[in-house]
Design brief:
The chain is of the alpha+beta class. Helix content is 27%, strand content 20%. The structure holds zinc ion (2 copies).
Length: 123
């Protein structure tokens, strides 16, 4: 590689490529694919974590999900922040009248019911 002159042009946009590691896989990944191909921007880590869970069944290191898990049907999703998790739960309750367990990364559990869908902006 010594014949490369100092003109090795790199995109300035991606000079701080996030790196995610997973001890279960014993690997780490630079998120260039998420940034470049998926245009995930500042959600690249979240996108990667959710894809990792989807394909391997576990989340990478340092990722603690919010879990929305329906009590009445097999529906359920994991999210990396409260807002989309709650929105999913409230929306599911709104359409199905099911009750959904919303579990925080700390293990706090809250049940969302169709009543909560009337108060979407409440905490
Ligand atoms: Zn892994
Ligand atoms: Zn359900």
């Amino acid at each position: 590689m010594t014949d490369m002159s100092g003109d090795n042009k790199q995109s300035d946009d991606f000079e701080n490529v996030p790196v995610v590691s997973c001890t279960r896989c014993g690997r780490e990944w630079e998120l260039t694919y998420e940034l470049d191909e998926l245009q995930a921007g500042n959600r690249a880590v979240e996108q990667f974590a959710l894809d990792h869970e989807r394909h391997t069944g576990h989340l990478p290191d340092d990722i603690s999900p919010w879990i929305a898990d329906c009590e009445n049907c097999p529906a359920g999703e994991q999210f990396l922040s409260k807002r989309p998790a709650k929105r999913w739960a409230v929306t599911h309750a709104r359409h199905t009248y099911h009750s959904i367990d919303l579990i925080s990364p700390d293990g706090d559990e809250k049940t969302i019911t169709s009543d909560d869908s009337r108060y979407e902006n409440s905490n």
